Amino acid sequence: MASEEELFASVDALLEEEPHLPPPAERARLREAAGITQARLATALKTTTQSVKNWENGRSEPKSPRLDAYQRLLKGWAAKYPAHGAAPAAAAAPTREPAVSSEPAASEAAAAVSQAPPVPAAAAVPPATRPAAASRRPAATKAAQPAADPRFPNGPLAVLDGDGSAYGAGGIVLDCPATTVPELVEWTLRASGLGAAKLSRYGKDSDPLIVLTAAAAVKLGLPERLEGHEQRRSLRLPADHPVVKQVAKAKWQLTQRGFGPWARIYRSAQGRERQCVQLAVLSWDALDERSWPGVADMEAADIARVLGVYAARVITPRGSTAVSGLELMTALRPPTKAVQDPATGNWVSGYNPGSLGTEPMDPAPPEATPEHPVVVNSGWSGGFLNEEAYQWVRSVETLSDEECTLPYAVGLDLNTAFLAAAARLVVGLSAPDHFRAPTFNPKIPGSWLVDLSHIDLDPRLPSPFTPDGRRPEGPAWYQTHTVAYAQELGYNVEILEAYLRRETGAYLDPWHDRLKNAYVDTLADLGVTKDLDDRQFLAAMERHKQADPAMAAVLAAIKATVKGGVGKLRERPQGKSYKEGERWPALERPTWRPDIRAAVISKARVNMHRKLNNMVKMTGLYPLAVLSDCVVYPSPGDSPLVFLPYAASGKPQPGGFRLGPTPGLAKLEGVQTMLWAVDLMEQGYNPARHIKGGDAVLDEGE
User: Exposed, middle or buried, 698 (CB in 10 Å: 0-12/13-18/19+)?
Assistant: First the structure.
């Protein structure tokens, strides 16, 4: 009877002829990690010796459950460590797949995934039949990889070029035979294997996205450019355009937005199966340069990489980054879920707790915009919330001689300040109720009418209660966080009126968490990691955009998604034909919630003032200007390291500005001379807008 060690030795001896597999010591370690220990095999020795001999002679498979597990483990090694001469799948060049019927492929893929041993995700890419056009940059190790969901083996999207090559995430290339838009839609849904799984158990799968290069657009019968007197992003194909007619003739539909830079083509869902494809036309400015810097000019494979990483970490793009930011909220907090009807026992669609529901909700009059029907129809004249980001410049008269003699002005920028403010933010979920002279409660989200004009603060700091930093001049409407901060500063608040919400929840929490992870992970891909000290962090940030322009574009898109998503919560009417008092399309969304936008911006502005105040206490320094999440300080040196507060141990002091790569921490925005900053201040300009060089954009996504 073979001993335990002889039993393993007989199996391992067979593997010595395969030098590409792990060495014996590594196999032993993995074997034990899998729970296949000598002790657990002891009871199976009597029944497995002959089985092993048969296996060695190639006559049969081992019958022992333990050895069967060991065999599966070895098969996994064989897949993970390919034989010499075979190209590792993870490092393979972009690959081209033939287009096949989708239904058999889906079932076969599902069976393969359920039966196959563990294999790295990149190894799931089918073997190449011919190399694709070489990309200008190698794919990053953390870039978007093939989808794990067997229904979508080729990832969430593809970039279609004029030669019929559809470049997907993970470096794959598909053959697309379509020559018309209806054929492209059919191919995408039936044969491409594109799409993405839902982000919430109650949500819906993401529709596949096809991005068209200029050559692909022309091949499909679309104009290379959309021309007109309006912004190109607002233009649409006319209803009598041949492509629009082709779509209608094939029994497909366009949304009310028509065929523009972002077009959705769909049919009514069949059961649970959605039939919808999103198209984006690059030459029609689908990818705004401000949100996707340099992406539209990249090679198709690189565009697929950028969009694929964004789709994997955020969401499959569905329009502008602002639209995607808003769609992400709904995808993570779906309005409905399946509930059981107690009367019939059937499962029906019901409200998903914590979401905004399916019906639009009118705001309280002070939360609305002046043109909103609730304002126009009621004749409201009681004022409005003015919770906006800071645009403040300190008066030159308040500068001291010591400040004026400092050589530098240094700008600090808070990472995704709106995203940091969204963390654990309690907002209203129900309709507002009106109250007269209620007692203030900082835990209730809403709008409060209160007089804060009696609060006299240091003029060298902006007022925390107004966007321009000026002292309030009488009663005004404020969001809960602004009033709570007045209490925090030690002042009494007497509420005159309030519109409050009884049902509350941290609606934005999953949105914050997903975008925070996306931001941190993308910065890490660019060499900016959490383990860097402050000097290393500043050096890494100085070169991060040059490290990988593709990933730098992903980072810019993530930041634009945050600001744009918050701005979309109060989308204003568009178009010259709009008349005051009419409803505009955005009002029909449950996500048209100006009160939630006000809560985010109020908290962000309060967070900024709290840091400014703490900096005075810890360093005696006062800012020169603030623009949204950027603040400019006078400095004796050209680095924030010379004036930021540090403890004796060298660690940053909590409460003030701290450098780092996570939302809410700061990075260097720019350095100029103090003379330059004072000159701008004397002319009435904001140094924070220009300290980086050029003109910073106060982008609130509107």
Answer: middle
Report the sign of the C-alpha dihedral through residues 636, 638, 643, 649, in that order.
negative
Q: pLDDT tens across 128-148, in order?
A: 333 444 333 334 434 444 446
Q: In Å, what is the CA distance from 182 to each residue of 210, 237, 277?
A: 13, 16, 10
Nearest CA to 97 out of 6, 17, 216, 193 is that of 193
DSSP 173-207: EEE----SHHHHHHHHHHTS---B--SSTTS-PBP
Q: How many CA atoms lie within 13 A of 635 on its CB side?
A: 22
Residue indicated by tokens 């500043």 = 538
Whole-angstrom Cα distance, residue 195 to residue 154?
8
Residue 137, C-beta contacts closer than 8 angstroms, at least 6 positions apart: 302, 548, 549, 550
Q: What is the dihedral of CA 66, 67, 71, 73, to 10 degrees?
A: 30
Length of the chain: 702
Check residue 58 and give left, alpha or beta (phi > 0: left; psi -120 to 50: alpha).
left
Q: Rounded to whole angstroms, what are the CA distances from 407 to 2, 59, 681, 682, 684?
A: 83, 85, 16, 17, 21
3-state DSSP assignment of residue 350? strand
* CA 692 – CA 685 distance, rounded (Å): 14
What is the C-alpha to C-alpha distance for residues 334 and 305, in angstroms, rounded to an integer?
A: 28
Please give the backbone phi and psi of residue 420, each rounded to the nearest 5 degrees, phi first: -60, -35
339: Cβ–Cβ under 8 A, 6 or more apart, which residues? 347, 348, 349, 350, 351
Nearest in space to 412 (alpha carbons), one of 195, 581, 644: 644
User: Which of 75, 104, 92, 160 lies closest to 130 in space, CA to CA?
Assistant: 92
Helix 594-619 and helix 480-488, axial crossing angle in degrees, nearest 10: 20
The model's pLDDT over 317-355, given as tens digits with 9 standing for 90+, comes to: 999 999 999 999 999 999 999 999 999 999 999 999 999
The pTM of the whole model exceeds 0.70: yes
227-283, pLDDT tens digit by residue?
765 555 568 999 999 999 999 999 999 998 899 999 999 998 776 677 999 999 999
Residue from 186, 97, 189 nearest 152 by CA? 189
As given in the structure block, the two tokens for residue 84 are: 């010499």
- In the block, residue with structure tokens 């830079």: 261
- β 172-175/165-168 pair status: antiparallel
Task: Round to whole Å and give the CA distance between 536 and 575.
Answer: 48
Band (374; pLDDT cuts 50, 70, 90): very high
DSSP structure class, residue 30? H
Confidence check: pLDDT of 95 > 80: no
Of 542, 546, 520, 543, which is closest to residue 531 (Cα–Cα)? 520
At 336, give phi and psi (nearest 5°): -130, 165
Task: Say if CB 497 and CB 437 are below 8 A apart.
Answer: yes
Contacts of 482 (CB under 8 A, 6+ apart): 387, 464, 465, 602, 605, 606
> Considering the chain, what percentage of its residues have pLDDT values greater than 90?
72
Bridge partners of 263?
279
